[in-house]
């Protein structure tokens, strides 16, 4: 582990020298003289005196360096039967025009812009156009319903929204614009303008005086020059699920982000100028932000924007077809996507139909990579399959195999080793470090590196309360796990009410709020249950109010429909069981942790304070997974 060990030790010895050197790969309008502002702990700011424009780093500078004719973006859309390429020159021009269009709607530096769009090039253009103006984008995933979008509109208070008339799922059209209209009706804050891409599959009605046609406004707009911003200015807000129903607005700054993206693209993913990176994730998630949009372009690589699924568009060979068609060097997706492919093509026969000689590695993240999926992908591709562990909050891998630096041995069930910038410690409930091999709370020593969240949007207190208050001097990841004797990290799952469904992060608390609002529900709990395909799926448990006259099946159907309408189809809540009671302590607290561990296929310690142990036994059959995600790997070291 020479190159990795050297890099990690360089960082550990002098973090500011390490990140100061990494910052040289970024083009600044005012280069940093100060690397880290430590004046106001626990708030840290990277490159506090520097200035840059992120879109210039992603686009213009590559044109200036003579790579204008190189492909920057490939749009591959099996759901519409189209594929399109944009060179760096074309993408720069399109972004500069879109920035002008947004400016004509009143958007300027520091203003927020919500982007609610499917996987089309205009979505990437909209994000980069905001970056060009110094405006702050907030992309909302299309699988969320109008009330979730409204909550984000009220929190971010955008001046404008960029949307599309519709999205295309394999079996149906998703009417984005009507959902946006409904969200704006629901929200207290009203954006002044909406810029809408009319797709031919389903055009939408534009509201006079508020809505503008993208084609009309952007095509005619003159190019807008880039606006230099402070490195510490926000580039975007990305909302993610917390333990409560209220999403957390993760803030990403401009300078730290650019440095971290450039460093990780080269040293973690091994991608440089002219290479082809494909992160098959929706742009509404962190993976889409970091490794579909920003990092490949910042590195001068080609990125693939794929509007389709791993299976069904048209078959389980779709990923291999895209790799062969576009010469993809690195594929990054979620384990669920591989499980979907494996289910349809268990013998990996479709893999052999395509020329995958360009592919160097498969990276997987977003949820636990079960050893069976790791083994299947390794056998099918004959390449390194690299589990990397991170979160929306960190923006880039906390732990990975440092593929760009060197090949290190991989261990099934482990996301390998900490990346420079991250000092992972495993703590017990009292905040003491546990011995190697013992399970505990995965925590990161402060300060966090460039690229990780500096705070939550307009809520420093919540940032501290959510992440920094459990253990002084540490960031609490919310994941449990252990480090082995070689410092490999094994992430075993969330220790809170966040659940992970098909690589999508959701809040059990927000689903509980929807169930609890039903007039026939006295009490409820939502727990993530291990699922062989999606990793986890939410399972609802409700106690009916005495006197309420409703059949359990009717109540279940009603609750499933309500969660779909209030949170969105992505919640994937399909089963709600009516139970006589929920397990509680004698003081009335619902034993969520115990239910969570039971649902995860573990044998939880039952607290002595339990009010009635027979209640837990009664719900056990509802929660215990029929067939857990293959084996759960080593739940305890060696076990
Ligand atoms: N817009 C609107 N609806 C969407 C959507 C979007 N962008 N994405 C998903 N949905 C809908 C789906 O159509 C589905 O609706 P349905 O209940 O009517 O069938 C529902 O949300 C659940 O979607 P999903 O959990 O994705 O299940 P799926 O069966 O449609 O697809 C996979 C399963 C594995 C193919 C898909 O989840 C996948 O590709 N996952 C990769 C994970 C990923 O990208 N993670 C991001 C971080 S790396
Ligand atoms: P998100 O913020 O959507 O990226 O989700 C982050 C959460 O997904 C983490 O806190 C983990 O619970 C889970 N996760 C992400 N990557 C991995 C991984 N490689 N192994 C295990 N869990 C992961």
TrEMBL record:
Gene3D superfamilies tied to this protein: 3.30.300.30, N-terminal domain of ligase-like
Question: One Pfam family this chain carries?
Answer: AMP-binding
- SUPFAM superfamilies associated with the record: Acetyl-CoA synthetase-like (SSF56801)
The UniProt record lists the AMP-dependent synthetase/ligase domain at: 65-446
GO MF term (any one): propionate-CoA ligase activity
Acetyl-coenzyme A synthetase N-terminal domain ranges (all copies):
4-58
The cross-references to InterPro entries, in alphabetical order and at most eight, read: ACAS_N, AMP-bd_C, AMP-bd_C_sf, AMP-binding_CS, AMP-dep_synth/lig_dom, ANL_N_sf
- Which segments constitute the AMP-binding enzyme C-terminal domain? 511-589
Protein family according to the UniProt entry? Belongs to the ATP-dependent AMP-binding enzyme family.
Q: What is this protein called?
A: Propionyl-CoA synthetase
| Species of the source | Parafrankia colletiae
Encoding gene per record? prpE
């Amino acid at each position: 582990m020479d190159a990795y060990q050297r890099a990690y030790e360089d960082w550990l010895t002098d973090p500011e020298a390490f990140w100061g050197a990494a910052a040289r790969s970024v083009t600044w309008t005012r280069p940093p003289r100060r690397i880290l502002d430590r004046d106001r702990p626990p708030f840290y700011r990277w490159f506090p005196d520097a200035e840059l424009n992120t879109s210039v780093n992603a686009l213009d500078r590559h044109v200036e360096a003579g790579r204008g004719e190189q492909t920057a973006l490939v749009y591959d859309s099996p759901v519409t039967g189209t594929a399109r390429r944009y060179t760096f020159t074309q993408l720069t021009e399109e972004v500069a025009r879109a920035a002008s269009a947004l400016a004509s709607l009143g958007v300027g530096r520091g203003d927020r812009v919500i982007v609610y769009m499917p996987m089309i090039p205009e979505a990437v253009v909209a994000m980069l156009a905001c970056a060009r103006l110094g405006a702050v984008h907030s992309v909302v995933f299309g699988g969320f319903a109008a009330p979730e979008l409204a909550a984000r509109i009220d929190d971010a208070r955008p001046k404008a929204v960029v949307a599309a008339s519709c999205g295309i799922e394999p079996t149906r059209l998703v009417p984005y614009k009507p959902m946006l209209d409904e969200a704006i009706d629901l929200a207290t804050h009203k954006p002044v303008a909406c810029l809408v891409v009319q797709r031919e599959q389903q055009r939408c009605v534009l509201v006079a005086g508020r809505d503008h046609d993208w084609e009309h406004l952007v095509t005619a707009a003159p190019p807008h020059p880039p606006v230099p911003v402070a490195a510490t200015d926000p580039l975007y807000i990305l909302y993610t699920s917390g333990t409560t129903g209220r999403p957390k607005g993760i803030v990403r700054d401009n300078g730290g982000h650019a440095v971290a993206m450039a460093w990780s693209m080269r040293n973690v993913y091994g991608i440089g100028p002219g290479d082809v990176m494909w992160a098959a994730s929706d742009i509404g998630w962190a993976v889409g932000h970091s490794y579909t949009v920003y990092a490949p372009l910042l590195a001068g690589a080609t990125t693939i924007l794929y509007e389709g699924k791993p299976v069904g568009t048209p078959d389980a060979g779709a990923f291999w077809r895209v790799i062969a068609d576009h010469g993809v060097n690195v594929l990054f997706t979620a384990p669920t996507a591989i499980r979907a492919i494996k289910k349809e093509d268990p013998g990996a026969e479709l893999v052999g139909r395509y020329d995958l000689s360009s592919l160097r590695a498969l990276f997987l993240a977003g949820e636990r990579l079960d050893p069976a999926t790791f083994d299947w992908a390794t056998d099918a591709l004959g390449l390194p399959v690299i589990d990397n562990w991170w979160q929306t909050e960190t923006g880039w891998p906390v732990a990975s195999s440092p593929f760009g630096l060197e090949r290190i041995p991989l261990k099934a069930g482990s996301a390998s080793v900490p990346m420079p910038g991250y000092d992972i410690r495993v703590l017990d409930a009292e905040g003491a470090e546990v011995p190697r091999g013992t399970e505990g709370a995965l925590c990161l020593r402060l300060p966090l590196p460039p690229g990780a969240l500096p705070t939550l949007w307009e809520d420093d207190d919540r940032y501290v309360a959510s992440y920094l208050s459990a253990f002084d001097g540490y960031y609490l990841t919310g994941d449990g796990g252990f480090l082995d004797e070689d410092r490999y990290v094994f992430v075993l799952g969330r220790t809170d009410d966040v659940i992970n469904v098909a690589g999508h992060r959701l809040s059990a608390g927000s689903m509980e709020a929807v169930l609890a609002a039903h007039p026939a529900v006295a009490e409820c709990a939502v727990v993530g249950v291990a699922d062989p395909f999606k990793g986890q799926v939410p399972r609802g448990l409700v106690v009916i109010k005495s006197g309420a006259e409703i059949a359990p099946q009717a109540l279940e159907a009603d609750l499933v429909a309500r969660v779909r309408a209030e949170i969105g189809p992505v919640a994937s809540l399909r089963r709600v069981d009516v139970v006589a009671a929920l397990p509680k302590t004698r003081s009335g607290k619902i034993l969520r942790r115990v239910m969570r561990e039971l649902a995860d296929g573990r044998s939880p310690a039952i607290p002595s304070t339990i009010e009635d142990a027979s209640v837990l036994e009664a719900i056990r059959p509802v929660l215990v997974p029929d067939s857990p995600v293959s084996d759960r790997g080593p739940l305890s070291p060696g076990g």
